[in-house]
Amino acid sequence: MSGQPPSRLSAIILVLAGIGALCVLDALMKWLALRHGAPLATFGRYASGSIIALAVWQWQGRPWVAPGGLKPNVVRGSLLAVMALAFFWSITQLPLALVLTLTFVGPLVGPFMARLYLGEPVQPRYVAAGAMGFAGVLVTVGGMPQLSGTSLLAALAAVGAAILYAASAVIMRSRAAADGATVITLIAAVVPMLWLSPVAITAAAVPGWTDLAWMMATGLAGNIGVQLMARGYVHLEVQVSAVMEYSALPWAALFGWLLFDEAVAASTLAGAAIIAGACLWAAKAPKPAPKALSATPPAPVP
Fold first, then answer.
1. C-beta separation of 218 from 44 below 8 A
2. 75-98 tens-digit pLDDT
3. pLDDT digits (tens, 9 = 90+) for 50-62
4. Which segments constitute the EamA domain (predicted)?
5. Domain spans, the chain
């Protein structure tokens, strides 16, 4: 290997593919959460993810975090446990497209979190691209319905999950070059599994073999998504990768059409076009490289 970092376009493709894998995870998790409840389904996702991540970690020679990296990775894993519970419960109460719409507040706050945590300057183009992407989401779903009671609580859970996800993405961006995708994926699976382990102990019944196999599939999809995104995040500013999150809605529409025979409305196509435009706008390389990134060139990711 030449040791040269991948191009900006390659990094963007990695992030987009990782988001697609996580959309597969969301579809599987909605089905499992409706059958077994969000807490048990979420534990199954991270337990299976831990098994797969441990196997990959062993195969990769047991790499470990760089000095000072354990604490932020454990904090990130803890945020993911709360985020996942909130998000997966919300998709059992609301349509997946609506939940995705609500979670897209994450890319709007991501650049400001990156400013505080990483020192990345907030560039107006990225903020405008994020707003443009959110407008595309609203076009896709035709606006927000009136919410009350459990639906309102689920909507608030989705927004809270989005903010926690944005915070976890900023931490991943800060550690991706130093720690590597293998270790990041492992800790991001093991820590939530440990937090959620009481759910397995108190479960009324053990899922059947078929459902256990689907839980393994969620672990695989989730780990692939995290691996791809961690590799792409090494070479992208948070503000760019945050806008890429809007590509989840076209992914969800595609999987709904392929797997569940869900018709794709004209508003979905129009919104997808706006979202694609926002992603392309944000993907355009900035003229000066941000100081915070140029000071620490990315290391190879195992």
1. yes
2. 999 999 999 999 999 988 888 777
3. 999 999 999 999 9
4. 11-141
5. 8-294
